[in-house]
Design goal:
By secondary structure, the chain is of the alpha+beta class. 28% of the residues lie in helices and 30% in strands.
Length: 199
Amino acid sequence: MRRLLLALPFALLPLAIAHAADEHDHDHEHGSLGAHEHGVGRLNAVLDGQALELELDSPAMNLVGFEHLATSAADKAKVAAARKQLENPLTLFSLPKAAGCVISSQELNSPLFGDKPEADHDDDDDHDAKDGAHEHHHDHSEIHAHYQFTCATPTALSNLDLTQVFKTFPATQKIQVQLIGPSGQQGVEATATAATLKF
């Protein structure tokens, strides 16, 4: 199950970047890569038998409104509130009760949660730089959430409804979704007005 998903982001990333670049010109004047674009999150969703796996990556800006480490009480409260929402994925992803999904594992990572930035993504060439990971141009603060569920009645999961994600985190304007389910693989862009995806 895990192998299946890990291969996914790398295979699909060029698509996501190319796609984001198309719409990027009139969005922002600076040419940042589509991989970290404010207002845009990425979600991989895999439904395989009774196993459902969701992996959400989002710039911290979309979820908490800033990307620096929280030092003030107000900022810490925002981070804690976002984390609490992310720790309740059954509600956040509006998984239908009829599907009988229970969380088998969940993992949240972000420099904002005090996690160390992962230094070994795509920068093998500068391992010598001791503090390089902190100043990388692509080292924006991301929030990464990875969930695995076991669903007693997976047929009840005909849709994935992201309405609640957009309501909870209104700074998220769109989510680039890669869905793999009984009907195959598809890439979809979800927005607050088109938040329901068919598996």
